[in-house]
Amino acid sequence: MSIVEVKVPDIGDFKEVEVIELMVKPGDTIKVDQSLVTVESDKASMEIPSSHAGVVKEIKVKVGDKVAEGSLVLMLEEAEGGAAAPAAPAAEAAPAPAAAPAPAPAAPAPAPAAAPAPAPAPAPAAAPAPAAASAGDASKAHASPSIRKFARELGVDLSRVPGTGPKNRITQQDVQNFVKGVMAAPAAAPAAKGGSGVGLDLLPWPSLDFSKFGATETVPLSRIKKISGPNLHRNWVMIPHVTQFDEADVTDLEQFRVDSNAALAKQKSAVKLTMLAFVIKASVAALKKYPQFNSSISEDGSALIVKQYYNIGFAADTPNGLVVPVVKDADKKTVSQIATEMGELSAQAREGKLSPANMQGASFTISSLGGIGGHLGSDLR
């Protein structure tokens, strides 16, 4: 094993940025592309990923330091095969909350404890929350992208969390303390909107000892499943669900697909056309004809935001749970290109190598049950 220097990659047009958060410590084992530090310019926050995998030996920066492209971040004892492929610019992490890489693996530990909370209640007396925070206040909260993501996973409205970091920045500990305060506080009326506060006064889930009825086994949930549960619950409560079943004769299309794959095999092409690739292309045509299905309601509910792009998400099963990679600009790609990209994204998903950017920005999502011989279904996403 060798000691390597991990430096700040290309950060776009920013000459110097300030380190506002250290996300690892000496002795931590990190993976390629895992976030190391959060930096902030006058326009945005972004996270600096690791170019290698290994064990952190020494951190060369501290909170408040100014760094630029090429600045030394830390010394790493490299694991075998720990070098990364040439990385994309870190500046892709824009102000949008969801655009940041995931926090260090230990960060989401409080998620299971937060899931039962029906809504963020007022903060404890020792740390009062801002009164009557408006829906737009959370976007103005002084927090890094990783903290925003962490808060979303727990259903926490950041406008209600007092920051104790530099310049009143909200830290992960602040969010955890807020959740602990909510859990310990007396029951209160559910929040009207935002996060998991959906305005429903739900009965508490009954506490049952299942072992009384027979043998049981406790199997820990994967991180993906811990995150997905609260998000899917929110979507189920907040988004109207409508199911419509219909049929289409795809006999000719299926024959064309089979013949095309046979021709590609003779050419020794690695491309394999799936029915889902054709469905994605057909969906784009339908979205262009009916743009309301390629839109979202504005946050205040007063307008329809019609998207002029066609980014199609597709559900991919992995050993750790379901993820949704996104084929960007599907309207500009051929069926063959879509099939190739789907294969690459699915492989990355199974290997746990999907970047956050590959799972964001979908304007429409497709779940296919064909792989398991399914016909009809009504899923939740």
Secondary structure topology:
Blueprint: E1 3-7, E2 17-22, E3 29-30, E4 35-40, E5 45-49, E6 52-59, E7 66-67, E8 72-83, H1 111-114, H2 145-154, H3 172-184, H4 223-238, H5 251-266, H6 275-289, E9 295-297, E10 304-306, E11 312-314, E12 316-318, E13 321-323, E14 326-327, H7 335-350, E15 364-366
Parallel strand pairs: 11-15
Antiparallel strand pairs: 1-8, 2-4, 2-7, 3-6, 4-5, 6-8, 9-10, 11-14, 12-13
Strand coverage percent? 15-25%
How many helix segments?
7
Radius of gyration: 23 Å
- Largest sheet data: 4 strands, antiparallel
Classify the helix fraction into a percent range: 10-25%
Low-pLDDT residue intervals, each spanning 5 or more residues: 86-136, 187-200
Mean pLDDT: 77
Give the overall shape, derived from the CA principal axes.
globular
What is the distance, rounded to the nearest whole angstrom, between the alpha carbons of the first and last residues?
A: 43 Å
Strand element count: 15
Task: Return the structural class.
Answer: alpha+beta
**Strand order, sheet with most strands:** 1-8-6-3
Query: What is the N-to-C order of secondary-structure elements (H for helix, E for strand)?
Result: EEEEEEEEHHHHHHEEEEEEHE
Structural domain count: 3
